[in-house]
Write a structure and sequence with these properties.
By secondary structure, the chain is of the alpha+beta class. The protein contains four helices and three strands. The chain has one domain.
Length: about 80
């Protein structure tokens, strides 16, 4: 399994939408109002930028699966689906 994933795939085992995961990241200072990772997120290895070699204008922001999962669990979210 990939170390970095999108918010949809990270939230799925918790029954959370990508929007809800994004709000939690924003509330912790890891995601800005512009919906992009903050400097704090990059500095702590929470997020990376992925570009498509064929289409360099396409940018995806991926999140560290284990770190975001731990954050969600710390906020009291529990898995509804076991992804492991």
């Amino acid at each position: 399994m990939n170390e970095y994933m999108n918010m949809r795939d990270i939230g799925k085992p918790f029954g959370l939408s990508p929007t809800k995961v994004g709000r939690e990241l924003r509330d912790c200072g890891y995601r800005g109002e512009d919906r992009k990772p903050t400097r704090k997120a990059y500095a702590e290895g929470m997020a990376v930028v992925k570009r498509d070699a064929e289409h360099p204008e396409w940018i995806a922001y991926l999140w560290h699966r284990d770190k975001v999962t731990e954050l969600l669990e710390d906020f009291g979210f529990r898995r509804v689906v076991n992804d492991e």
